[in-house]
Amino acid sequence: MESRAKLFGHPVHPMLVVFPLGLFITAVVFDVLYLATANRIFAEVAFWNIAAGIVGGLAAAVFGLIDFLAIPEATRARRIGLLHGVGNVAVIGLFALSLWLRWNAMEVAPPLLALAFSFLGVALGAVSGWLGGELVDRLGVGVDPGAHVDAPSSLTHEKVTLTRP
User: Residue 10 — φ and ψ, nearest 5°?
Assistant: First the structure.
């Protein structure tokens, strides 16, 4: 099933998800560094990574929803897509809670509950990311119908054929 939202021939959603995933994981790394060193700069870097990750996650969600709505009803892909989307919204929600708890604690240590929400968000993000991989790699969601190892560049207007020429 081909993606509905493309840029230069490639699906937009997978292009955007790397940003919130990377930012959220990096935030947790900086939280761990903060816990190990008590150096406030690490907590502040985590704060800003979370803020940027939320913005990136919301942008990715728009394009993910566009692709989700194109998945046929009553299919395994639709069920997995729903779990993937709901999981990612929950991840953004957990990080939003973490950010909110940190908001007034910028000059002091981040509350332990804020750290817990971030760690839980990354764990849930791993599961949700796996589901996204299942959608693409196993179920072919977002993949050109004629994709193969010798397919022409997506920047050309050459028609993709199902078999090699």
Answer: -120, 145
Using CA atoms, how far apart are residues 151 and 81, in angstroms rounded to an integer?
26
Q: What's the pLDDT at 72?
A: 95
CA distance 122 to 104: 23
Q: What is the pLDDT of residue 152?
A: 82
pLDDT at 146: 75
Q: List the one residue out of 51, 19, 45 whose CA is nearest residue 32.
A: 45
Tokens for 116, please give them.
Answer: 């817990």
The Cα–Cα gap between 107 and 47 comes to 12
HEC string of the chain?
CCCCCEECCEEHHHHHHHHHHHHHHHHHHHHHHHHHHCCHHHHHHHHHHHHHHHHHHHHHHHHHHHHHHCCCCCCHHHHHHHHHHHHHHHHHHHHHHHHHHHHCCCCCCCCHHHHHHHHHHHHHHHHHHHHHHHHHHHCCCCCCCCCCCCCCCCCCCCCCCCCCC
Phi, psi of 152 (to 5 degrees): -70, 165
pLDDT value for 156? 80
Amino acid symbol at 147: A
